[in-house]
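Recap from last week: sequence in, structure out.
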Amino acid sequence: MNPLKPILLAGAALAAGLLSSCTTTTTSSSGSLGAYQSYDVPTKKPSNPSAVKVKVSLAKQRVYVMEGSTPLMVMPVSVGTPSSPTPSGNFTIYNKVAKKRANSHGYAYSGNNVKKTMLSSKPGGWSFKGTPMPYWCEFKPNYGFHTGWVKHTPCTHGCIRMHENLSPKFFNLVKVGTPVSIARTQPEDSTLGNIKLPPDAGPLPDYPVNMYTGDGYFSQHKAPNYN
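Predicted structure tokens:
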């Protein structure tokens, strides 16, 4: 367990109201971190990238990346809670940033002291790094798909959180202009949605804080592979 986690937990509430944060600090236990890190799903590259579309099921917490009627990737995700829901409707991905960091919330640090905080609350003289949100694909201002701990129940502030091994593949499958449909349910829920899930990230130990203040979290994934 990271000895700095109590400090991080104390500051987590400060970012709870920010829709674009979509971060979590998990609770340490004997959960299967190795099983979580090895999780992957089959993925195909499109024959026509312009025909790719994304469908999100909020109730099932699934994302279907489709080329026409052909699934390219089906992945579990975490979506917003009832108090901070993921918006539903038809959108378009209009911004992609592989190494995205939040502008207003993240980690203040000075020497060996680190705490999770809003930029506006950063102690004087401390350095600051925004919360990393790797493979950011924005579909509405302050809402996007990005890497994060995936749980089995809704837990984000409105963003769509992807597993670390799946987010780089999603990032490569979509482009600026890819349509995104977000609804309570999708027709694919009954035909494609019953996939094997990774362990629930809720009880898993968090990564060391230097993965977030440094660049480590941006490369915390397996090399993308395609069928």
